[in-house]
């Protein structure tokens, strides 16, 4: 298996993009009106509140993973450079 530093960096960018899209996703508030007053509207509101909590938690987790992928990508490049210098007889 071969891993490239650019792949790790791209993973971080992709995770950040997904998080941004989720952050911008609506909560379905405009859809609640379709149910009218009553139990169905209340159940829908409850469902959407859960969706919002989970969506925002996922946004935070994706941001954290994106940051970690960026750090990992930089560490990967540094490690490759050090190994290359070591194998070439240079200083570490």
From TrEMBL:
Name assigned to this protein: Uncharacterized protein
SUPFAM superfamilies tied to this protein: EsxAB dimer-like (SSF140453)
Cross-referenced InterPro entries: ESAT-6-like_sf (IPR036689)
């Amino acid at each position: 298996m071969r891993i490239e530093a650019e792949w790790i960096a791209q993973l971080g960018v992709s995770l950040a993009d997904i998080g941004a899209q989720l952050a911008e996703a609506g909560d379905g508030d405009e859809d609640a009106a379709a149910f009218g007053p009553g139990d169905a509207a209340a159940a829908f509101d409850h469902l959407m509140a859960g969706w919002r909590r989970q969506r925002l938690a996922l946004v935070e987790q994706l941001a954290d993973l994106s940051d970690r992928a960026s750090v990992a990508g930089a560490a990967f490049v540094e490690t490759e450079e050090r190994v290359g210098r070591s194998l070439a007889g240079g200083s570490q």
